[in-house]
Write a structure and sequence with these properties.
538 residues, mainly beta, four-stranded antiparallel β-sheet, 32 strands, 40% strand
């Protein structure tokens, strides 16, 4: 204990500085007035939000104000201030009358990477743009086009690899394509095709792994029929595209969720048409998966594929609850706590008989496959007529945030948030809060965790889910916005060295006021979380 104390004191002495007074941020403390970052004419849709290494955020969306669903991007400070002009910067002036999915990632240098369908050449292709923190385009003004030909292309995905190269993937029937770019946007080698004879497979997600390798997840139908049941397959590839995981049942992949029978000879269960779940690397050469099915038991599952391609849990995934007959669990929202190996998954639950009552639940699954929050999980919203959707989770303090749309009519709804403590109890006195109380149309909720532990949300808000892009932060203590500066420990309105020493005093005394991350324990993590917030400013 003495050794740890000395280490922290030495580190504290190294980092002492005097900070300037802080200004209030743009994140709103009023759930009825969320921060509107894109409010041009027509609609702004499909927002995505990603954390940058310096604690700032990038938010992307498609903007139809000038027609064509143009690609736009905004950069927000850690406290929610717009760093670029209001309504963001134009990345690509397109001419599409409809949209498909796209991807947004951030590299180690704090640059935004956006991959999207692009028709500026007169033919729909896949383009990747790299945008610096100051808003300048880093490769060419138009980005780098990675595809060719006339075949329809959709749903591009990005992975920033451990060697700083960038893997780009997209669905192009009957399989998906892969193209590596170096950090300068120069193609590395030829475009690769992943396909399987007799089936059309579609890319879900790409994630980086160790030693320049990457992992892909895709949807694979049972047979050649477009109406057959659909399953989830995955493979890890080395830097030269050689598969690293064993072949299962004739497919050059590991079966995350597949048909029944040996060797997978009969259809059973299925993921929903148009459903392409994301996944997470586990930080040790494997990956974490979470999904729901819309056939069979209609439940939600998780799976952990280890570095050698073996599966930690049972065939076709571990159900997130014990035996719960006649209950449907969909809208699965996955997150992963790499520090503990815990998997967090939230879902919307209804009865299969009438589908008239909807609840919101979550579960923590340990690395050993234990349902840590009991056989039924933690109930966040009790059953009601209000249908919830776009469930999202973010790991925090041994538990998680969970956010969701909650319907108030067939076309309107609000945004509900809660934080679940490590033991599975709701952490806030009221249980849940309204992150947005605006009873309006809502669509495409996305969420990221800030460097200081907030959940930061982005969604489209307006009639029919076609409107503006709004953002909102949710603090660990169940408040919204930045009415106060969290590292301003003495609440004098200034962030300076006195706050630093006041925190140290509370920390070494073991005072509850030093539980900076609100997880119920005062330990070194609180110290480092405080340091992160202190130097990020407010």
């Amino acid at each position: 204990m003495t050794r740890r104390t000395c280490s922290l004191v030495s580190l504290a002495a190294t980092f002492v500085l005097i900070a300037a007074p802080v200004a209030l941020a743009q994140f709103s403390s009023d759930p009825a007035v969320n921060f509107d970052i894109a409010d041009r004419a027509s609609e702004q849709v499909q927002p995505k939000i990603r954390l940058a290494p310096d604690g700032s955020f990038f938010v992307s969306w498609f903007d139809n104000a000038a027609g064509g669903y143009d690609v736009y991007l905004q950069h927000l400070s850690a406290s929610g201030n717009e760093l670029w002009p209001h309504n963001g910067i134009l990345v690509a002036d397109r001419s599409f009358s409809s949209t498909v999915d796209y991807d947004l990632r951030v590299d180690a240098g704090g640059n935004a990477l956006v991959a999207f369908n692009d028709d500026r050449s007169g033919m729909s292709q896949i383009t990747v743009a790299k945008v610096a923190p100051d808003g300048s385009m880093q490769w060419t003004a138009a980005g780098v086009t990675v595809s060719s030909g006339t075949v329809f292309k959709a749903n591009p995905r990005l992975a920033v690899l451990s060697d700083a190269d960038i893997m780009v993937g997209w669905s192009e029937s009957p399989g998906f394509k892969l193209q590596k770019l170096d950090p300068a946007g120069v193609p590395v080698g030829a475009t690769q095709t992943i396909s399987e004879s007799g089936r059309t497979i579609s890319l879900c997600d790409l994630q980086p792994s160790d030693n320049g390798s990457f992992i892909a997840l895709w949807v694979r139908p049972f047979n050649t029929s477009g109406q057959s049941n659909k399953y989830l397959y995955t493979q890890k590839y080395d830097a030269g595209y050689a598969p690293l995981w064993p072949v299962t049942a004739g497919a050059a992949a590991v079966v995350v969720y597949g048909p029944t029978g040996a060797p997978y000879g009969a259809q059973g269960g299925s993921v929903q048409n148009g459903y392409f779940p994301p996944f997470f690397p586990d930080g040790a050469g494997g990956a974490i998966y979470g999904w729901y099915e819309n056939a069979g038991p209609r439940t939600s599952y998780v799976q952990h594929v280890l570095a050698d391609g073996s599966q930690a849990f049972q065939l076709n995934g571990l159900p997130v609850t014990g035996a719960t007959p006649n209950l449907i669990k969909v809208s699965a929202g996955l997150s992963y706590d790499a520090s503990t190996g815990d998997i967090l998954l939230g879902w919307s639950q209804t009865d299969s008989a009438t589908q008239s009552q909807y609840a919101l639940l979550a579960q923590k699954i340990t690395s050993a496959g234990v349902l840590a929050w009991g056989a039924g999980g933690t109930q966040v919203l009790a059953p009601s007529l209000n249908q919830n959707s776009f469930c999202r989770t973010i790991e925090y303090g041994g538990g998680c945030y969970i956010v969701s749309f909650d319907a108030r009519s067939a076309t309107t709804g609000v945004v509900v948030a809660a934080r679940i403590a490590s033991a599975g109890t709701l952490a806030w006195p009221g249980g849940t809060l309204l992150a947005s109380s605006r009873n309006t149309g809502k669509a495409r909720l996305d969420v990221a965790r800030s460097a200081t532990g907030q959940a930061v949300l982005a969604w489209t808000d307006g009639p029919g889910g076609l409107g503006d892009v709004l953002v909102q932060d949710v603090n660990p203590d169940g408040t919204l916005g930045n009415p106060a500066c969290t590292p301003d420990i003495n609440h004098d309105g200034l962030l300076n060295s006195q706050d630093f020493f006041d925190f140290l005093t509370a920390f070494f005394a073991g005072s509850p006021s030093a539980d900076f991350n609100h997880n119920g324990a005062v330990n070194s993590q609180d110290f480092f979380d405080f340091l992160t917030a202190f130097f990020a400013g407010c």
